[in-house]
Design a protein that fits this description.
The chain has 473 residues and is α+β, with helices and mostly antiparallel strands. It folds into three domains: 91 residues, 2-Layer Sandwich (Uridine Diphospho-n-acetylenolpyruvylglucosamine Reductase, domain 2), CATH 3.30.43; 119 residues, Uridine Diphospho-n-acetylenolpyruvylglucosamine Reductase, domain 3, CATH 3.30.465; 193 residues, Vanillyl-alcohol Oxidase, Chain A, domain 3. It is built from 15 helices and 19 strands. Strands 12, 13, 14, 15, 16, 17, 18 and 19 form an eight-stranded antiparallel beta sheet that branches. A five-stranded antiparallel beta sheet has the order 5-6-10-8-9. It has a four-stranded mixed beta sheet with strand order 1-2-4-3, covered by helices on one side. Helix 8 crosses helix 10, helix 8 runs antiparallel to helix 13 and helix 13 packs antiparallel against helix 14. The structure holds flavin-adenine dinucleotide.
Length: 473
Amino acid sequence: MSQLRVDSRFGGVGVVDHLRAQLPADRVITDPDLLENHRRDEADLVADGLPLVLVRPRSTAEVATAVRVAAEHGVPVVPQGARTGLAGGANAVDGCLVLSLQRMDRILKIDPVNRIAVVQPGVVNADLGRAVREHGLFYPPDPGSFETSTIGGNTATNAGGMCCVKYGVTTGYVIGLEVVLADGEVLRTGRRTPKGVAGYDLTSLFVGSEGTLGIITEITVALRPAPEPALSLVAVFPTTATAGAAVNEIMASGAAPSLLELLDDVHLRAIEAYRPMGLDTNAAAILLAAADTGARAAADLAAIEELARASGATEVYTATDAEEAAALLAARRLAHPAMEHLAHGLYAQGGLILDDIAVPRSALAELLDGIAATAAKHGVVVGVVGHAGDGNLHPNIVVDRADPESVRKGHLVFDEIMELGLSLGGTCTGEHGVGLLKRGWLETEAGPVGMRVQRAIKAALDPTGLLNPGKVL
Ligand SMILES: Cc1cc2nc3c(=O)[nH]c(=O)nc-3n(C[C@H](O)[C@H](O)[C@H](O)COP(=O)(O)OP(=O)(O)OC[C@H]3O[C@@H](n4cnc5c(N)ncnc54)[C@H](O)[C@@H]3O)c2cc1C
């Protein structure tokens, strides 16, 4: 009980008692183990705090109540989905109210005529994908965390994924939102129609806002007809930069791969050590490519193979059936746990600093060379994986958390990669968001005028700064 904040303005009634008085009993949780479990997301080496209380609402009205009570008591609110975020965006601050949206997990509507779905924020990405497939429809954004991350979290981070090279990222699919504002009022944005341009595009403003402008309580997404099952290939390269150059050739040719992913040698070895998948650990890098164009897929893939070989691929293996294609994709999805495994193998307290740089595709080879040079200069292990077709790479920097010098060097490498990426015309985050990890880099990227406008938007929507404080800005 010592954690409970008591505010004299409410006659000694603390925020927790106030929440309990206004919400069903099971929604308001102060169990210390659960509070501890909700401290942070998946980002390593970023600050977190101990929540005062965890609220698990079941409806928009309950979210509005929790936000209103928190605002009355001046308690910060940190929204959380599945906490798979990789930038510390969902990390609690000491004494906050963590608002977990995971229990608002109903698919409210699938409308095949209008090709939309309406969902609560806690719906898991893969569950929505499976549900719309039954109607012959497709919700494309597919982050690597698709089996666990929520559509609310995906919307709040504007998540990307593997098929985004062909189909685009979350913002291309979110057409309407319901949002609980900082004072507890409920805002509806957007449309349910294929077209609509009424007023400022508030929907896009909330997509990628990382819980700092409002709590997303309902999402209307556009759907597409389901594509044909994809055929895929692996191209093996003698250097990462030749793999980057191949990406340029493939995209310049007018090809439309439904997946174009890069894994470097550090990842290939890490995945094989973690779970043997038959990957070529002697390669400097591989590209995974897929085509989902039905009867044309084999020919489309053959054209990609030719371009990969012309760019220097030493071997190209084509998956002969859907099972092999799925195995290739499964290997790619192991990248994150495999790198964690590698870090723990190297150091008892191994950790990863995750970068998320995106550059114009034409600068990919230069970025890859630069990352390798930076890693070598500082003697730090850096593995590179990423959505190469989008110019979006995740350099995973391995550090010894027990050694301050190792952590310092890791941050130095992180900063040098950021600097290089921005100098190449890139952005400090392609899809993970700014969170806590890249706040300084947002300032560099946006510049003083950009930051003034961003801060004005935050001040307009959250004047007391209680929504996810310290994140993004
Ligand atoms: C193995 C692995 C692979 C990944 N692969 C990808 C990938 O390919 N592409 C990609 O983009 N990301 C990827 N990620 C990162 C992460 O999964 C995404 O950022 C995802 O969108 C987060 O969803 P979540 O439900 O876990 O949200 P959280 O991590 O819980 O929250 C993320 C952010 O959204 C805010 N938020 C959550 N819900 C709401 C809401 N309802 N209203 C307002 N704000 C909210 C939080 O405050 C936080 O700022 C990966 C992560 C892992 C662990």
